[in-house]
Amino acid sequence: MFKRKWTGIIVGSMLLALTALLGVLKGSVSIDFSALTDTDKNILFYVRVPRVFLSGLVGAALSLSGVLFQYVMKNPLADSFTTGVSASAAMGAVVAIMTGLTGLVPLFAFVAGVIGLFAVYRISTVAGRVQPITMLLAGIVVSTFSSATISFMKYLSDDAVSSIVFWLMGGFQAATFGKDLVLLFALLLVWLLIRREYMALDIICFDDKTARASGVDVDRLRKVSFLVAALLTAFSVGYAGIIAFVGLIVPHVLRLVGFRKADELVPMSMVTGAVFMILNDLVSRTLLPEGQELPVGIITSSLGGGFFLYILVKRKKELHYFA
């Protein structure tokens, strides 16, 4: 098991390095690396490099948040959408776009995401304890309300509606090194916090009574996991818009190939999520002719829809269990 874990991490890290290099070298603009002009250097260091870093970090953050939501809710199909965090963060970003404060989109998304998180947490807390089933229902309520509010704001704003629609589809056009550093810091902080709880995360998969009898502070672990996962989602939405299914596809595929324990699943989800997102972003930049760009959210949604159709048809019984 130890050998499998480190083999997976090493292979995944090598794939990450290769996909990152490919993402930097390839794009809609051809660059002659034997004779780099000033324009070529600007494209490389101020467009492609920060963009590849941001896409990888968002992929890792969404995958990690998906894993944590699934542990917290004991549901392999749970992710940031089920908790309402993505929708509420998007609502905040749309408010920023409508009011012309485009430079503050990440801040508005973060604040709205935290408000959505607080609402879900308050609704789902009974006698000081978070109820997983109630949390799912509360997340659906918050998502529905946020989506309705976004639709209403798009209806009222003719001038900004195209910008809102394009941003909601997800992408990394606005990547900067500053955003990369902020998200990297948040991701490392969450990982350092969670890595001490690997065994507790595995134990919490059983019923709460068994977990408490094993010495796990279930309520604290559930609260911390829920908070940090929601915060990672809010940062990702603020910087890249809504990118669906990453937190569902990556952990689910890793479980299917045998990575089930937290000390394997968490790091592998981060590495694999980064590879997955860099490749999706590369496709979005090179698929269409004449330098046109396809929003990343369309690609991930298409892949996710096909993946879960396959899961529903081929593995119906397995979806009833979380192991």
Question: How would you characterize the overall build of this protein?
Answer:
The structure is a single chain. With 323 residues, this protein is mostly helical. The protein has one domain: ABC transporter involved in vitamin B12 uptake, BtuC (Orthogonal Bundle), CATH 1.10.3470.10. The chain is 74% helix and 1% strand. The protein is built from 14 helices and two strands; from the N terminus they run H-H-H-H-H-E-E-H-H-H-H-H-H-H-H-H. The protein has helices at residues 2-25, 38-73, 80-83, 85-98, 105-124, 132-156, 161-168, 177-194, 198-203, 208-213, 218-240, 246-256, 262-286, 296-314; strands spanning 125-126, 129-130. It has a two-stranded antiparallel sheet. It is globular, with a radius of gyration of 20 Å.
